[in-house]
Amino acid sequence: MTDEFETQLRRALRPQDPGAPFTERVMQRMNGAPRALGASREPRAAGLRGWLSRAGSAARLRLPRRAPQWVAATVLACAVAVVGVAHWRSESLARSRAMQARAELLQALSVTAETLGTARKLVRRNNGHES
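Above: the chain's sequence. Below: its structure in token form.
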């Protein structure tokens, strides 16, 4: 699988002739001719579909103009997820501690009730013998 990937990568990154329009633009800029806005450029398709077609045809990865917004949105989403997971974890831990404390309290009340029952029997027995 690695060899196949490397082969595809080499094929995608091999040098390509940019073509005559590119050479003309470079020569014009070298001669000092100002470039007209949008001149000799092909219209670009908008959105992700256009970006993918440009990236595939150019055989290199170029980020779209909105990449900083995507990065910011991704970082924000990750931060919200981290905060949410941390909150859930602390709530889960607090719930677990509360359940443990409840179990300990119930056990203590059971022992106390048993002890009080035993003490009550002793008091009744002692009071019955003395009267």
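Helices lie at 2-13, 20-30, 47-58, 67-130.
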